[in-house]
Amino acid sequence: MLFRSRVEGFFSRINYDYNQKYFLSLSARRDGSSKFYKDVRWGTFYSVSGAWRLDQESFLKAAPIISMMKLRASYGQTGNDGGISNYAWQPLYALGWNNATEAGILQSSLGNTALEWESSNAFDVALEFGILKNRIAGTIEYFDRRSSNLIFDVPLPLSSGITTLTKNIGTMYNRGIELELNGSVVQTKDFSWNINLNATSLKNRITKMPDESKEIVDGTKKLKEGSSIYDFWLREY
Questions:
Q1: How far is CA 234 from CA 166, 201, 216, 217, 220, in A?
Q2: Cα torsion through 145, 151, 156, 160, rounded to 10
Q3: What is the pTM (predicted TM-score) of this model?
Q4: Is 154's pLDDT higher than 90?
C-alpha cells in the first residue's frame, strides 16, 4: 500500500529596486498540509528583505580600490511538516495482533488534532564586498534563526499503552556569525588559482519547553530549556 500526503501552497512576491541602488522584496505564502487536522491545516508565512548598493554611492565611487560593496538584511518565515507521519493527527491502529484464530487490532498512536506547522523565523544582516577588481571578495554575515512550535515525539507513561505522542513542544534558536573570503591568487590567460575560506560560529539553545514536559529524552539527546539540541545524553565510559 502506498501512503501519501498532500501539500497545497499559494505564493506571491513583490520586488522593487530604485536606480539599481536600493532593493526591496516582500513575499507571502499560504500552505496547507494533510498531515494536520483540518482546523489547523493552513499556515501563513511572510518574508521581507532589502539591500543597499553602497558602491553606487558617490562617496564610494571615488575609492577605486572598492569594486563592490552591498549591505543587505532579511527576515523570513518558513513552515515545516517534515519528520512526522502522513497521518500524525489521527489515532491509528495496527493489525496482526491475533489471538489464535481470532483477529485482533491494537491502537498504535493517539493522534493530535492540535498539531500544527513548525515555524522557522530567520533574521540575517550581511555585508558583501569586493576589492581590487574583485580579486578579493567576501561576505560577513550575522544570523539569528528561531524555531517555534517544534514538532517532537513526546514520551508517555508506559501505563498509557502508547509510547509517544507527536506534538508541538517549544522554541529554540540558532545564531552566529559567518565569514566567507574568496581570493584570486593567480589569474592569467591560461591559468587561475583561487583560495576560498569559510568560517562559522554557531550557538544553539532551547528557550522554551511545555510545562508538562520540561525534559524530554529523545534517543541520545535530552531536550531541556537552556541546553543545546545537539548535546548528547549518554552513559559515561
A1: 23, 25, 14, 10, 6
A2: 160
A3: 0.81
A4: no
